[in-house]
Structure formats: C-alpha cells, structure tokens
C-alpha cells in the first residue's frame, strides 16, 4: 500500500465543454398524455434538469465545496487483482480517541452521501461519542480506479475497504452502510469481524429469504402469511417493488456493458436513469435541481466514467444467474444495529434482520428513505450515538476509543 496523496477535484474545462455540447444536442423522446411517472421519468422533469445542467448549474461552485473535505488517494493491493488507486474522504474528529467509522455507499450513491452526517459524527461533546469518518469511493465509483478484469465481487470490495482502514492505522473500527454498503458490510464482517470490525450498523437490513434449513422458526413465520397481515404486507410489497422497480437491476446484472454505452455517451439518458432512482427510492425527499445535478455529476465526471459502477450488479449476481447477493457469507456474532426507514423500498419483516447477525439495537423512524444519510442525517447519527454511546449496546467495543 502506498502513502496517501491529498486529492482535490478538478474537472477539466475540456470535459465540461464536451458535456455542454452534448446537452445542447440532446434529443428528447415523446410522451403520452397524462402518463405521469407510470412509464418512467416525466419529460418535463428531464427537460427542466437538462436546461439547468446546461445553463444554470455551477459545477465549479460544487467542486469548491467538495474540495473543502479532506480527501486522499491511496493504492490498495487486492489479491489476484493487483493494485487499485482508491479515493477516500477522511474527516477526523477533534477528539483524539474518537471511534474510527467506515462509511460505505452503494448504487446509485457515492461518497458524498456522508457529507451531511459528518458534522454530527465528528462533533466533540461530553454528551455523546465522536467518530473519525472514512468514506471511500468504491472501485469503479467516483474517483477510484475501476477493476480491470471480471470477478471483482463481494469479498474483493470488502478487502479494499478493510485494507484502507488498516492503512490509516485503524486496526479496529466500526462500520455503517446501506444499499450495497450494507451488502459489502456483510462480507466485511464475515471476513474481518470481531478481530477488526467490532460492530456495525445498517440502514437496509436485508439478507436471504428464510428457509426451513437456514432458519426453521422464521420459515414457519413465513408460512403464517395467509393470516398474518404484517408478514403478508411486507412480502407482497417487496414482490411488487421487484416487479415494478427492478428493471434497472436486471439490465445491470446481465448486460452492464450494453447499457454502459448509453451511460458513457448520453448525459441526458444517464440523468434520467439515476433521477428515477433518487425520486422513487427516497421518502418524498424535496430534491432541489442542483442537488440532483451535483449527484449526477459525481458519476458523469467519475474517473472510470458512469458505466463502470453498474458492473457491481453483474459480479454479485454472477451475471444474473444467482439471486443470492451474499454468497459465501453466514450469520456472525459482530454486534449489529439496524435502522428501519419508512421510505426504504426494500423493507422486509423486521425479524429477518436477525438472520444477518447479532442484532443489539433496532430503531424505527417516522421519516427517511433509501438514502438515509442524505435524507435523515440527524436520525442516522442519533442511532450511531445511541449505539456507541454510554449505556449503548456497543459502548466500548473499540478499546480505548470514545469514552468521551
């Protein structure tokens, strides 16, 4: 592993000029009258966002704000995949004995999801724990180098983020994630749990469907579905979401290269693809146009281009052949905190979270969705403070770290 190199974002003028030329030449599809969101993103929304991206959105202003964060690059060696140059944010607390916390994003997220959390987590107070926050761009996302050959899956992503923490001197740390950040978390705690990962927290606590052999009690609970309204509603809602909202999942799991040409060449097409997920997966979050465009721009200006990130779906599903995103993992005794947000599309029976690991804390929030760190940072930070604070179920799990 190399030494860290400070990183400042600086998209070239040529890249920005090319983007604006492509936006100038945009050709839009027609739209059925009264279609609303039933057929996909409404035409008026995309036209408005494209006009703003082309003539009003100030990327240089966003870039300057992003560069206020402490960002770095570092080479990480991955078994059988060589060295990858990884981008990460490392925001330290003023408190020296703060708890090292690894925050991992998913798709269509990125490292900036953690930005609203940082003030809450790094603040120093005699009333709550404080954290040193590390938020990498996963390989192929943001400004990290992408893998160069097939087969880079769950344990490889886990190896990258774990080795990053070790390189920073954090031999023991805690973890937080949602979406693929949760999925990778399962691999991290399976491979490095207890010895290095002392506890973790998920805001999308999903795992496998219970079977008679994996968990007889939960399997029997599933059989009560015909007359158990709670179980029935949860399962039916999950099936409806998969039926109506998972087209992107099937495409990216089976043909990421094919859709990648559209991602790489059409900023309008890519904007619509991601904007749909931002709206449909959040809890009526009032997205501003500039928030959306900054989010999209992180992908558009990413190191490997916007197509590279889609390949994580192919690798974790073996090209769509497997529905088990957690292949090779089992239940672990690493203390786990779970948060349930009402707008999270993938919401399963709460009892199923216990198949993931040793659940020591569970919270239920009145507001927030899939992008909890961005939509409801105070609530998520409150969960972490409660979990790792005095009297909490994971207080003192990292020896010598935050006793306040």
Automatic annotation (TrEMBL):
A biological process term (GO) from this entry: epoxide metabolic process
Pfam families (alphabetical): EHN
Keyword 4Fe-4S: no
Domain Epoxide hydrolase N-terminal intervals: 4-114
Active site residues of this protein: 179, 313, 370
One example GO MF annotation: epoxide hydrolase activity
PANTHER family, alphabetized: EPOXIDE HYDROLASE, EPOXIDE HYDROLASE 1-RELATED
Family, as annotated: Belongs to the peptidase S33 family.
Name this protein carries in UniProt: Epoxide hydrolase
Organism: Lentinus tigrinus ALCF2SS1-6
Lineage of producing organism: Eukaryota, Fungi, Dikarya, Basidiomycota, Agaricomycotina
């Amino acid at each position: 592993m190399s030494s860290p190199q400070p990183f400042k974002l600086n998209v070239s003028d040529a890249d920005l000029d090319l983007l604006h030329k492509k936006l100038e030449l945009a050709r839009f599809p027609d739209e059925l009258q009264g279609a609303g969101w039933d057929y996909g993103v409404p035409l008026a929304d995309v036209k408005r966002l494209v006009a703003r991206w082309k003539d009003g959105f100030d990327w240089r202003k966003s870039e300057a704000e992003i560069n206020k964060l402490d960002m770095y690059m570092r080479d990480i060696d991955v078994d059988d995949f060589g060295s990858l140059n990884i981008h990460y944010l490392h925001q330290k607390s003023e408190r020296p004995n703060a708890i090292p916390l690894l925050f991992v994003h998913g798709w269509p997220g990125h490292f900036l999801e953690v930005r609203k959390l940082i003030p809450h987590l790094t603040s120093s107070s005699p009333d709550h724990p404080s954290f040193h926050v590390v938020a990498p761009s996963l390989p192929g996302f943001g400004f990290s180098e992408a893998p160069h050959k097939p087969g880079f899956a769950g344990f490889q992503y886990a190896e990258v983020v774990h080795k990053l923490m070790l390189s920073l001197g954090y031999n023991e740390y805690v973890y937080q994630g949602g979406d693929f950040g949760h999925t990778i978390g399962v691999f991290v705690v399976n491979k490095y749990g207890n010895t290095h990962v002392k506890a973790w927290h998920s805001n999308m606590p999903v795992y496998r469907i219970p079977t008679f052999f994996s968990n007889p009690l939960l399997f029997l609970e599933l059989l009560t579905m015909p007359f158990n309204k709670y179980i029935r509603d949860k399962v039916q809602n999950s099936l409806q979401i998969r039926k109506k909202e998972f087209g992107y999942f099937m495409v990216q799991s089976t043909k990421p290269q094919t859709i990648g040409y559209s991602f790489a060449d059409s900023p309008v097409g890519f904007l619509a693809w991601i904007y749909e997920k931002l709206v449909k997966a959040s809890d009526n979050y009032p997205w501003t146009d500039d928030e959306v465009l900054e989010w999209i721009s992180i992908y558009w200006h990413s190191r490997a281009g916007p197509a590279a990130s889609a390949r994580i779906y192919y690798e974790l599903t073996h090209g769509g052949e497997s529905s088990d995103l957690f292949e090779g993992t089992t239940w672990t005794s690493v203390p786990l905190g779970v948060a349930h947000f009402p707008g999270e599309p993938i919401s399963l029976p709460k009892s199923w979270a216990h198949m993931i690991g040793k659940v020591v804390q569970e919270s239920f929030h009145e507001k927030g969705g899939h992008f909890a760190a961005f939509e409801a940072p105070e609530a998520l930070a409150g969960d972490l403070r409660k979990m790792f604070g005095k009297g909490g179920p994971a207080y003192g799990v990292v020896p010598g770290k935050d006793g306040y």
